[in-house]
Amino acid sequence: MKTSGALLLIFILGIVQVTSAQSLPKVLITYHSESGKTKAMAEAVAKGVSSVKEVDFILKPIAEVTKDEILQASAIILGSPVYNGNITPEVQAFINSWPFDGRPLKNKIGAVFVTGGGFSIGEEATMFAMIRSMMIHGMIIVGGEELEAAFGASAITGEGDFADREVQEIFLKKAEGLGRRVGELTKIKD
Ligand SMILES: Cc1cc2nc3c(=O)[nH]c(=O)nc-3n(C[C@H](O)[C@H](O)[C@H](O)COP(=O)(O)O)c2cc1C
């Protein structure tokens, strides 16, 4: 009798654990990156999200994201390199693939990050291209923790001291702060 009681308790605890693991809000961090700079920013965003307890995240390139992952995410943090002052065609195609009928993305949190070769040759325009699309879907837009990441996190990767190097710490910190803020707000909201 005692043994069966203990087994029942273990079974119930197992169910509770599985249920609570399943119900954690999820942040989808996704990006396009050809030479690794935007990927490095995405990893820093993930570091920020992972510092928040009871929030899960998925980190993967846009090419690997499924429709279910988009639908199930409580927040989407999207990253693009700047190409000719804009998002890349791959990021545009990804956004175009988001389900629209019934506006299933409405009230999900949205945030953005970019990397661009130079100062003031497209990084803000690229952030706003993604933000505009997110707002068309009814998403709630969130900027970074710092004033210097007000619209999202950006990194300069090809000009002056920032050329021919890894993405610099000052930019990675902005990305991390963005992830942490989105994580915290996702937790409050869900
Ligand atoms: C086709 C192409 C167009 C680009 N256009 C711009 C641009 O308009 N402005 C800018 O700041 N950087 C531009 N860049 C530089 C990239 O945005 C920059 O190198 C970025 O960090 C690359 O990201 P990735 O390493 O994740 O691919 C361009 C790069 C390519 C390949």
UniProtKB/TrEMBL annotation:
Keyword Flavoprotein on entry: yes
Gene3D superfamilies xrefs: 3.40.50.360
Listed InterPro entries: Flavodoxin/NO_synth (IPR008254), Flavoprotein-like_sf (IPR029039), FMN_Rdtase-like_dom (IPR005025), ISF_SsuE-like (IPR051796)
SUPFAM superfamilies tied to this protein: Flavoproteins
Gene Ontology terms for molecular function: FMN binding; oxidoreductase activity
Flavodoxin-like domain segment(s): 27-179
Keywords recorded for this protein, A-Z: Flavoprotein, FMN
Membrane-spanning parts: none
The protein, known as: NAD(P)H dehydrogenase (Quinone)
Organism: Belliella pelovolcani
